[in-house]
Write a structure and sequence with these properties.
Blueprint: H1 2-24, H2 50-69
């Protein structure tokens, strides 16, 4: 009985390992979802170095947070 439990445990571990490996070696590059009100750079624009990319991303996140934190105007229920 212990042998069957051990085999089942090893089989489950093997399956989890294979799925994790498949996820890590995925060829699809994740992209950030578009945020309304934040302009994306044109396709032909050079991306710059890592520092510039980091600054640009931080600014986009800051703009998105500010846009999301603004209260929306509610229509009057008259």
């Amino acid at each position: 009985m212990r042998g069957i439990g051990l085999i089942g445990l090893l089989l489950a571990l093997l399956i989890v390992g294979l799925v994790a490996k498949k996820q890590m070696t995925s060829a699809v590059v994740p992209t950030l979802p578009s945020v309304p009100g934040v302009a994306a750079p044109p396709a032909g624009t050079p991306t710059g170095n890592v520092h510039e990319q980091s600054q640009r991303l931080q600014q986009q996140v800051k703009d998105a947070v500010e846009a999301a934190s603004k209260p929306r105007e509610m229509p009057d229920d008259n």
